[in-house]
Amino acid sequence: MQFIDLNAQQKRIREKIESNIKRVLDHKRFILGPEVEELEEKLANYVGTKYSIGVASGTDALLMALISYGIGPGDAVFTIPFTFIATAEVIRLLGATPVFVDIDAHTFNIDSKKLEDKIIRTQSTDLIPKGIIPVDLFGQPADYDEIKQIAQKYDLFVLEDGAQSFGASYKSKKACSLGDVSCTSFFPAKPLGAYGDGGMIFTDNIDIYENLVSIRVHGKGSNKYENKRIGVNGRIDTVQAAILLAKFSIFDEEINLRQGVAKKYSEKLKDSVNVPYVKDYNISAWAQYSVLHPERDKVLKKLKEKEIPSAIYYPKPLHLQEAFSSLGYKEGDFPVSERVSEKIFSLPFHPYLKKEDQERVIEAIVED
Ligand SMILES: *Cc1c(COP(=O)(O)O)cnc(C)c1O
Question: Are residues 224 and 337 in the same domain?
Fold first, then answer.
């Protein structure tokens, strides 16, 4: 059994993937070829935004979005310490300051009740509050209605980190359309994964969109050798776009299959571990199926003995990482994130996880 098995999916659509790659080999437009635009159009339609721009990774998506807002030294951007490093890394990379807000104990997403207090407190420092990056952790969208209300009150942008939530929904709206700007990742293990790195940015704002088109190619103006601003090389490869087009054709079906696996896990495991809590108006994309157990090491050892793979997302919250030591945080600053990071682990999960394998995982956890 593999933690995330991409084999079954490849078997289903191998021919389509090969013919899509072959088309790129034939037309040879490896940089920003027609497949990139086709993918951008299809995915923007799917999530329901006016514009989208294919980029080199989820990290580049976040970075470029912050560049488009002109984020730099002296700016504060609010996010959670219980996420993948990329979310906060890009803030620091631009010289700005990530200001952490603790997570909700049940959803592991930003605690909107603690957010406003943090903004008010930041106002009385040297930092200028500029934006919020909510993360849709493990595939479940954050509380965007509450977050946007606060953002409006303090004139902040909302940048959705939807790296794990492509395919999810919030109150019937698709994830990756929930921020003023939204980002996702096509890292192979994400719900919609490529065979390499890739990402996408979504927005309804034409000014931001036009900015991003320029930032994606070294701040280009009307042509590549006229540079209006500082940008990056942030393009998605045509080959990856071609592969993603093949994968997208069965994506909705896979999101449904994910619901089935999660439902079965949750029904059978709810008395043995803390199973994921998904709000009734949310549909998760189930990038990870993560549970809590106070004696995590014991459970993980048992799984290992039975050759069942597992993983820990995330063993150390960002405020305690050496990379962010200059921010001056210490243990105890974000008690929920710290507590969760000590108890959490993720189970093997993908749309094609066989019934027998689901049973094996369940049995290993339930028996004591
Ligand atoms: C994966 C991930 C990213 C970064 O995406 P890459 O494509 O790997 O650069 C950013 N944020 C979160 C929450 C992620 O899970």
Answer: no
- Strand partners of residue 54: 200
Question: Mutation test of ligand 1: which of 4, 64, 87 has the most ligand atoms closer than 8 Å to its C-beta?
Answer: 87
Tell me the pLDDT tens digit for each residue of 140-191: 999 999 999 999 999 999 999 999 999 999 999 999 999 999 999 999 999 9
At 58-100, the pLDDT tens digits run 999 999 999 999 999 999 999 999 999 999 999 999 999 999 9
- Report the alpha-carbon distance of residue 24 to residue 196 in Å, rounded: 16
Interval 305-354: pLDDT, tens: 999 999 999 999 999 999 999 999 999 999 999 999 999 999 999 999 99
Structure-token pair, residue 317: 């919250």
> Is 57's C-beta closer than 6 angstroms to any atom of ligand 1?
yes
* Ligand 1 atom having least distance to the Cα of 187: 7
Is 355 a domain residue?
yes
Domain limits at 362?
251-366
187 lines ligand 1 (CB under 6 A): yes
Residues 211 and 350 in one domain: no
| Across 131-140, average pLDDT | 98
Distance CA 324, CA 326 (A): 5
Res. 124: pLDDT tops 80 = yes
CA 51/CA 53 separation, integer angstroms: 7
Q: What is the CATH number of the domain that holds 185?
A: 3.40.640.10
Residues 109 and 169 in one domain: yes
* Model pTM score: 0.98
Query: Domain for residue 272, yes or no?
Result: yes
Say yes or no: 175 and 318 in one domain: no
Distance 272 CA to ligand 1 centre (A): 30
Within 10 A of 197 (CB to CB), how many other CB atoms are there? 18
Residue 55's DSSP bridge partners are 199, 235
How many Å apart are CA 203 and CA 181, to the nearest integer? Answer: 5
